[in-house]
Records
---
Amino acid sequence: MDCSSNNLFLIAEHCLFNGDIAQKLSLTHSAKQLLDQQRLSFESLTPVQSIANTCFPEKPQLLLPRAMPRRSMDSDEGKAAFFHALAHIEFVAIYLAWDIIYRFRGLPVAFYSDWLTIADEEAQHFALICQCLQQYGLTYGDLPAHSGLWWHAQDTADNLLARLAIVPRCMEARGLDVTPAMIEKFQQLGDRHSVDILTRIFEDEIGHVERGSYWFKYWAAQQGLDSEQAYKTLLLSFYKGKPKGPFNREVRIIAGFSTNELDWLEERLL
Ligand SMILES: [Fe+2]
Ligand SMILES: [Fe+2]
């Protein structure tokens, strides 16, 4: 690709089908700047490639979730592993935001603007977590990472409503449940730097889930579906296993969940 392109889908293609990390971060940031300067073009110029062609860097080595070593957060080694796992989540989140842009065409410009803003925030989160990782002498790729995060993208590659149900409204929403306890843990350890970074990420992630809920409802309505019913049906068919709790109900409501959806999820808890 001509890296000077101002076409959203060509930039998305470059970010998804090249593994280079530094280039991905800088292209994501320049695409957001083009958006802010109203210089971004939204014309669909090339056909959508298969999700199977998505290209990840050579490192980290990707392992099945059950093969990932478990470490306690009480050691430096455990904290380093925690930040490495988080860096991987943020890194895959950059791909997830680009992929929802790239794969689903013909949507309103506001849809693409929202997900590009999210891609740029994920790139910032990744860079911030890499700073935390540096405190432990590590860089992203030094440890193995969980291969499962991308499976949800592959499963929902041809179904926008399922993608929105599973990625922002299930995976990212789970982050809203568990992050406050992590922040608390680093507060107890007196690690102000990590507290600040995790708090910043938590606040942004509420917005990501909220945008997920907004576009989920929009797309359900476009198809004449009841959004609560559609959410339940899609979760049952696309989410393997039961949801994990407890839920951060207060924050999930801010992020666009209905009490009805939360009640239904709670009835199905592990
Ligand atoms: Fe993030
Ligand atoms: Fe996110």
---
Amino acid sequence: MTKLRELYYCKHCKNLVEITAEGATALVCCGEDMELLEAKTADQGKEKHVPVVSEKDGGVFVKVGDVPHPMTEEHWINFIEVSTADTVVRKELAASDVPEGWFNVNPADVVNVRSYCNLHSLWQA
Ligand SMILES: [Fe+2]
């Protein structure tokens, strides 16, 4: 059964779906079950993906990677997402953007921060 905020990926067409109403038995795309993404929490290798979270101006500032992640047409961070118990705020990024964002969310309320790389999938602080 799907759960709220899970992300499902289609390896054929790269469709990415976030669950906003849970309880479905399956998500199917291109004729196959979609893959439930498990966020990685520890970087390996030279490209960094784990969100680095700090408080700034009463909100939350997130940088992707302690060394900024590459942002090119072939390899970039698609989005950064900050969640509280009842809110999801997502900044969508283009390859020309800097892999960071400020979120108007009370730092004390944050329960999860995720980033998504087009090549290396889902990461979590
Ligand atoms: Fe990456």
